[in-house]
Specification:
It contains 18 helices and 6 strands. The chain is globular, with a radius of gyration of 24 Å. The protein binds acetyl coenzyme *A.
Length: 429
């Protein structure tokens, strides 16, 4: 294969080198295109644009493969802990026992929020969306740690990473407590990461609360499965905002806002609403599948299809099994889980879904687990954000350490009015 491609334009030839990745993905390097030809590329939604060379996550959407730092997602979901997976994503290698102990200790000992942050939670109205509180409080962390937030100082980056990983579960749980009018529960450092989060979510000061280990395991697995997914909208947001050299808290807060959107982190809520609608229609899956296939009907099967995966989303496979265990234990017979399984079976045998390669994605079963745990719909994206945090940190760090990084600043094709004369207000009707 040749190592460059040629663009012929207006009598000029531009030779674009081909960039090759370790999995043989190929891209056209157009970084010198504008300087040489005056042309820019036009790619709405950046669907054909590689914004970075990244060594963090590899996805093969046709084969249904997801790997973090080369390790397939399946053994990580089965055998790793969220802290270990976070270390792997952020530092590039699995930790030694000592490195893992050190990383865990640091995160465990930064879980408390500064007491003067409490009024921030109190200030929000009771029906505030927890994602708004999460984003505001994450940005607010930068006000407390101004002396240690230089993005170009590795020591500051290290301590900011510990602080973010440690404090985000506390912020998330407090945003939930605020929304249901219960007292905030302080972190307990004797508990593991997921266990501590569940404790802060569901304990009340009036009685003892023991976290169910099966719930802890299920949550740990969900966090691992959501931990990174290369250059998606929220990660690209973190990178772009971070490229301005703002502090990492501000960059992560921007990522949380991007994730909040229903086209990104919000789809699992819509799955639940769709399943409820089908259950209310007495489980008539056939009519919903017919609607999803009808070009004149905007309805789509939520939790089906993916921009990258044209095969079963490897995360969905694992989550389906976990949903089975958790729902059986906590709910017993869940009519919505039943509807989901019937819907999947019917869709996977339908020619429309087969031809278009539409399979269940990560959101199809995850919401059912959160629901069985007793979480309200508006907390679903918050759980997604907790899982995605180490991926955002790893991608931000890779961006800040990359000598090729420039401030993110796309160009445009201007289609507005050409130059015209200003007309004073006295001369306008
Ligand atoms: N139900 C019915 N038809 C579908 C579905 C679906 N869920 N998904 C895609 N299609 C059809 C489209 O109508 C289109 O048909 P056409 O070629 O006849 O026009 C074809 O499949 C390709 O779909 P696109 O929308 O072009 O694919 P794209 O890659 O742009 O979109 C997306 C992917 C947004 C995920 C889409 O499959 C979808 O809307 N799914 C439902 C929402 C959802 O589950 N989102 C969560 C994604 S995972 C995540 O973000 C964490």
């Amino acid at each position: 294969m040749t190592d460059h491609a040629r663009v012929e334009y207006d009598g000029q030839t531009f030779e674009a080198p081909i960039v090759v990745g370790t999995e043989q993905e190929r891209g056209l390097d157009v970084s010198k295109l504008r300087g040489s030809t005056g042309l820019i590329t036009y790619d709405p939604g950046y669907a054909n644009t590689g914004s970075a060379r990244s060594a963090i996550t590899f996805i093969d959407g046709d084969a249904g493969i997801l790997r973090y730092r080369g390790y397939p997602i399946e053994p990580l979901a089965e055998q790793s802990s969220f802290i270990e997976t976070s270390y792997l994503l952020i530092h590039g290698e699995l930790p030694t026992r000592e490195q893992l102990r050190g990383f865990r200790d640091q995160i465990t000992h930064h879980t408390l929020l500064r007491e003067d942050m409490r009024p921030l939670f109190d200030a929000f109205p009771p029906d505030a969306h927890p994602m708004a509180i999460l984003s505001a409080a994450t940005s607010g962390l930068s006000t407390f740690y101004q002396d240690h937030y230089d993005p170009l100082d590795p020591a500051d980056v290290e301590v900011s990473t510990y602080r973010l990983m440690a404090k985000l579960p506390t912020v998330a749980a407090w945003s939930y407590k605020k929304s249901i009018g219960q007292p905030y529960v302080y972190p307990q450092n004797a508990l593991g990461y997921a266990e501590n989060f569940l404790h802060m979510m569901f304990a009340v000061p009036a009685e003892d609360y023991h976290v169910d280990p099966e719930l802890t395991n299920a949550l740990t697995q969900l966090l691992i499965l959501h931990a990174d997914h290369e250059q998606n909208a929220s990660t690209s947001t973190v990178r772009l905002v971070g490229s301005t050299h703002v502090n990492i808290y501000a960059a992560i807060a921007a990522g949380i806002s991007a994730l909040w959107g229903p086209r990104h982190g919000g789809a699992n809520q819509e799955v639940i609403q769709m399943l409820e609608e089908i259950a209310a229609a007495e489980g008539n899956t056939a009519s919903f599948i017919a609607r999803a296939k009808d070009r004149n009907d905007p309805f789509r099967l939520m939790g089906f299809g993916h921009r990258v995966y044209k095969n079963y989303d490897p995360r969905a496979k694992i989550i389906k099994n976990t949903a089975d265990t958790v729902i059986n234990k906590l709910v017993g017979d869940d009519p919505l889980f039943e509807v989901a399984r019937e819907l999947e079976e019917a869709a996977l045998q339908d020619d429309y879904f087969i031809e278009k390669k539409l399979y269940p994605n990560v959101d199809f079963y995850s919401g059912l687990i959160y629901r069985a745990m007793g979480l309200p719909l508006n907390m679903f994206p918050v759980l997604f954000a907790l899982g995605r945090l180490p991926g955002w940190v790893a991608q931000w760090k890779e961006m800040i350490e990359d000598s090729e990084t420039r401030i993110g600043r796309p160009r445009q094709i201007y289609v507005g009015p050409t130059e015209r004369d200003y007309v004073p207000i006295s001369q306008r009707s």
